[in-house]
Amino acid sequence: xxxxxxxxxxxxxxxxxxxxxxxxxxxxxxxxxxxxxxxxxxxxxxxxxxxxxxxxxxxxxxxxxxxxxxxxxxxxxxxxxxxxxxxxxxxxxxxxxxxxxxxxxxxxxxxxxxxxxxxxxxxxxxxxxxxxxxxxxxxxxxxxxxxxxxxxxxxxxxxxxxxxxxxxxxxxxxxxxxxxxxxxxxxxxxxxxxxxxxxxxxxxxxxxxxxxxxxxxxxxxxxxxxxxxxxxxxxxxxxxxxxxxxxxxxxxxxxxxxxxxxxxxxx
Length: 267
Known about the structure:
Elements: H1 2-15, H2 30-33, H3 38-57, E1 61-65, H4 73-85, E2 92-96, H5 104-107, H6 116-120, H7 126-129, E3 131-132, E4 143-146, H8 162-174, E5 177-181, H9 190-195, E6 200-206, H10 212-221, E7 227-233, H11 244-266
Parallel strand pairs: 1-5, 1-6, 2-4, 2-5, 6-7
Antiparallel strand pairs: 3-4
C-alpha cells in the first residue's frame, strides 16, 4: 500500500509538470504523431492560409467553434495551433475556453490544472497557468497552452467580462497568434460572446455529418462580422474518388523522395 501511494503521488507530480514527452500526446494530434500523413499536410496548408490572413489584416486572435458537439473542433484547434507554432520565430498560445466541457488538456496527456478561469478570478497568475508544450518537432518556447482551469457552472459568465478583454489583450501582446477553443455555437452563447472580442472566427464542420441546414443555422444564429473561414474535418482522402488518386501519388512520391534523401545523407 505504501509503495502504491508513493507511485501515485509521483504520477500526479509528473502529470502536473510543465514538460510532456511525445509518448503522452494523443494520437489524433497528427501534426506531431504522424507528421508525414496527408492529414498533417492539410494542417500545414491551413497554416499557410492563416499566416497570409494574419499578415494581410493583422489578425492575431481567433476563436474556433463548430455548430454542434462531435465535429472535431478541439482536435482541429490543437493541430492547427501546433502547426502554426512550427514556423520559426513564432510564438503561439492555445487557450481552452470550452469551460463547460474542456478536452484540450487530455489531448496533451494532462490532468486538469489551473488555467483560464483561475487567471480571470485572480487565483493564479498567467505566468503560472501557461504550460509550455515541449516536443522534438516544436521549436523551444513556440507553443504555450492555457487550460480551461477549475471551472464551475457560473464560469462561462466571465467570458463577457472586462477581465476577459484584458486577458485577450495581454495574450495578443505576448504571442504572435492566439487560438481559443470555444463551445459549439448553436446550443450555447459562449462562442458568440468571445467571438466579438477577437479578430476572427473559424467554423469546424465534419464531412458526412454536418448538414447544410445545420451550417445555415450556425451562420445565422450569430451576427459575427469576422468569420474568416470554414474547416472541413474528417475527409477520407484514401476513399474519396476526387482525392484518392492524388493521395496515392503523394504517398508514392513522398516515400521515394524520403528514401532518396536518406541515401544521400548516408553517403
